[in-house]
UniProtKB/TrEMBL annotation:
Keywords: Cell membrane, Membrane, Transmembrane, Transmembrane helix, Transport. Pfam families: BPD_transp_1. This is NitT/TauT family transport system permease protein. The keyword Membrane applies. Belongs to the binding-protein-dependent transport system permease family. Signal peptide: none annotated. GO terms for biological process: transmembrane transport. It is a multi-pass membrane protein. InterPro entries: MetI-like, MetI-like_sf. One of its GO terms (cellular component) is plasma membrane. The lineage of its organism: Bacteria, Bacillati, Actinomycetota, Actinomycetes, Kitasatosporales. Its main location: membrane. Residues 84-265 form the ABC transmembrane type-1 domain. It comes from Actinacidiphila guanduensis. It is found in: Cell membrane.
Length: 278
């Protein structure tokens, strides 16, 4: 038997080839955020130039410098905290209700053919039809208080999460189900110990979509029926032609959206690392 001889050059090439994907991932980790910041900076610079040169009227379109001053003033004066807390509380309650309802319901529907056939058309309709068209009826049913806003947030957030959970439950690997049958696991045990962990990537992907839609629902509800919250501030300041203050409130909404999205993405990366193929 002869031993295989490896030359130093082939070893170096193998090591370089092994570390190349790691280097590319590390480069992408810093390059993508940098490019994103650069894109935002280009848009803001173009907006500022248009406002400064008179291409657009700052009285109606505001400007980055004016919006930034209004944003700083809102934080230093404390005017932003009350509407910010109102919006976040509505989003939190809506997401809590959506998660508690959608995850077990989606697992049940996804693992039952009859329930899936019965509910799939209804879920598709409720997801596809804009909830804004139901606002007049929701106002009649729930009024214009916090309850109505929570209903709109739940409507916005629940269906994308529900659809993702159902898709995950319907795409379970047969080997997982065979193991549960071998151990004579009940349906409830199978859902809890097999279906739920296996569908966790789908669940977190649905939560990521639901968070964004929940924030949109909260802002829309505050625009139409709110007396508090960031959406109400945008509507009030815009109607009074205080565009700098309105853009400052919109900037706060954008910051919240980015933080929520990246927060859920971080959880998704940490909790479902085993499901990635790269």
């Amino acid at each position: 038997m002869t031993a295989t001889q490896l030359s130093p050059g082939s070893v170096r090439k193998t090591a370089a080839g092994a570390t190349a994907p790691g280097r590319r991932r590390a480069l992408d980790r810093y390059l993508n955020p940098a490019l994103g910041v650069l894109g935002v900076a280009v848009v803001l610079a173009a907006w500022q130039i248009c406002a400064s040169t008179g291409v657009v009227d700052p009285k109606f379109s505001s400007s980055p410098s004016g919006a930034f001053r209004a944003l700083v003033d809102s934080f230093t004066s404390g005017d932003v905290w009350s509407p910010l807390g109102s919006t976040l509380s509505i989003v939190a309650w809506g997401m809590l209700i959506s998660i508690v309802a959608a995850i077990p319901l989606g697992l049940l529907i996804g693992r039952n053919r009859v329930l899936y056939a019965l509910t799939d058309p209804l879920i598709s309709i409720m997801y596809s039809v804009p909830y804004v068209v139901f606002l007049p009826m929701l106002i009649f049913w729930f009024g214009i208080g916090a309850d109505a806003r929570v209903v709109i947030v739940v409507w916005s957030a629940m269906f994308p999460l529900l659809i993702n959970v159902i898709a995950g439950a319907r795409n379970l690997e047969q080997s997982h189900l065979q193991v549960s049958r071998v151990f004579c696991a009940s349906r409830l045990t199978t859902l809890r110990s097999v279906a739920f962990p296996a569908t966790l990537p789908y669940i977190l992907a649905g939560v990521r979509q639901a968070v964004g839609r929940a924030l949109i629902g909260a802002i829309v509800a505050e625009l139409f029926m709110g007396s508090a919250g960031l959406g109400y501030v945008v509507q009030l300041k815009t109607s009074n032609f205080q565009t700098d203050d309105a853009m400052a409130a919109i900037a706060v909404i954008a910051i919240i959206a980015v933080l929520l999205n990246h927060g859920v993405a971080y959880l998704e990366q940490r909790l479902t690392f085993w499901s990635r193929t790269d």
